[in-house]
Amino acid sequence: MRRYGLIGMLMTVYAFCFSQNGTIPRSWYVDRFTGQIVQFPIPFTLDQIQVVRGEQSTRFDLSISPYDYALLSDDSVYILEIHTKSLVIVYTHNFNDVPGVMDDNRVSVIRRRGATRIAEGTIQLDTTNSKITVIVPIILPDELVAVVFRYLPNVSHLERVSGGRPPRVDHLILSADPFIRIPGWPRGGSQQLTQQQRRLSQSGGQSRQPGGQQRRQGRGGGSSGGGTAEEWTGGHMDVPVPEDGSIPWNDPRFRGGDGKPWPRDISVPDSPEEPGVKLPGDVIVNWGFEHGPNPWPGPDGSDAWVGIVGHDDNENGRLDPGEVEGVIGLCPPDGSVNNFYVDDQGFVHWENRKKGNEDAERPDLHYIYDPRTNTLKIYDKERGLIYTGPPENWDNHVR
Q1: How far apart are CA 316 and CA 29, in angstroms?
Q2: Which member of 67, 86, 112, 308 has the lowest number of beta carbons within 10 Å of its beta carbon?
Q3: How, if at all, do strands 230-231 and 107-111 pair?
Q4: Does a structural domain hold residue 179?
Q5: Burial 107-136 (b: 16+ CB within 10 A, else e)
Q6: Between the CA of residue 291 and those of 34, 160, 251, 303, 337, what are the distances in Å?
């Protein structure tokens, strides 16, 4: 049985379309077997979206810049996501691992919390007017936040892409907040794991430190209060950002310096709403707040958000200051939009998009951490590898 996606809904015969300089935009992903960058052309980019609200439905008219509709083939993989604060409206082709999505080649309306599908919609690609129309039988309950387009040229790429899902090749930020991060997929749904994800969970579930060294015991410190880290069991998961954007500079501190994995002090969130994400092997990742060289106390222009990693040695379900073993992401000195998440394969990502570059296709810096080998890789905007090694004292490579 043939699989028909957007290309099967064309109102006119598709044509080859190119940019003014005759080239087709390209995106990329990191091959998880070789660590190399794989580039590929993309069929279109996103321009703008208009929302038409009816009495019992909502229509989204998405204008696009087409380059080659033939790239939307039966064998390609693509996902269109429309995000509000509480809902995700998703269309998938050749990909069924979005939490809450039960059927391929359909528009699903999914609650962000709980990953529950509440409605189905329709989608149509108009090649004459370069427009995608999505209609859902609901009234939007809250603000429209972002539109995301993911794409891979062939299903065979899925087993190689670092993350196990199509990379984001373009997006629109629609919120008035200039520093809002691109939303992740719904969370909390009961999603069946693939064989690859089950192997990852089983292989990572041993009480050994990444890299094969025995874990250090009895190093837990700081407060034992607060919530318990959300456990990753497969699928995409965002690392929850501190509630209402509060800065935890008054929380318990990891003390940096000579002989430590990081040169500066880091405040570790101590709120029940900010417990981080727990990976196999009692590895926990979370947001932290790095303190600059200016005098204590308080945030200033030299302070920065960071991603921290360590082991839950005292088994209190969260990461305490004495358990921090490394830093896996850093907000640059001039600020940025930071995306912090665990992908389908258990790799941890931190993406920087600097001020004035929030809507760029490629992050300015892309950090990828492998908790199984305790290896951090940092890529620049041109896809160059600028650091690979343990997540310790690497800050001189990026600032």
Answers
A1: 36
A2: 86
A3: unpaired
A4: no
A5: bbbbbbeebebeeebebebebeebbbebbb
A6: 36, 38, 12, 5, 19
| pLDDT > 80? residue 11 | no
Asked if residue 137 is part of any domain, the answer here is yes
Q: Are 367 and 377 in contact (CB under 8 A)?
A: yes
CA torsion angle 131 71 89 123 (round to 10): 50
Same domain, 111 and 67: yes
- Find all residues with CB under 8 Å of 245, minimum gap 6, and list them: none
Q: Please check whether residues 166 and 202 belong to one and the same domain.
A: no
Q: Does 183 fall in a domain?
A: no
Measured CA angle at 341 (ends 335, 346), to 5 deg: 145
Which pair of tokens denotes residue 361?
A: 């296709």
Q: 211 in the Ramachandran plot: left (φ > 0), alpha (ψ -120 to 50) or beta?
A: left
Same domain, 284 and 137: no
pLDDT per position as a tens digit, 363-388: 999 999 998 888 999 999 888 999 99
User: What gap in Å lies between CA 48 and CA 147, rounded to an integer?
Assistant: 9
Residue 59's SS3 state is: strand
Q: What is the pLDDT of residue 351?
A: 93
User: How many domains, the chain?
Assistant: 2
DSSP codes of every residue in 256-272: -STTSSSSS-EE---ST
Residue 388 is assigned to a structural domain of this protein? yes
Q: Which pLDDT band holds residue 213 (cuts at 50, 70, 90)? A: very low
pTM of the complete model: 0.52
| Whether residues 260 and 337 fall in one domain | yes
212 CB contacts (<8 Å, ≥6 apart)?
A: none
pLDDT digits (tens, 9 = 90+) for 235-275: 888 888 765 445 565 678 888 888 889 999 898 887 666 77
Give the model's pLDDT for residue 217: 26
Q: Provide the pLDDT for residue 228.
A: 80
User: Does 162 share its domain with 297?
Assistant: no
Is 385 in the same domain as 267? yes
What's residue 42's pLDDT? 94
Q: Does 135 lie in the same domain as 26?
A: yes
Residues 236 and 100 in one domain: no
Closest to 326 in 3D by CA, of 352, 351, 308: 308
- Domain with 93 in it: 6-173
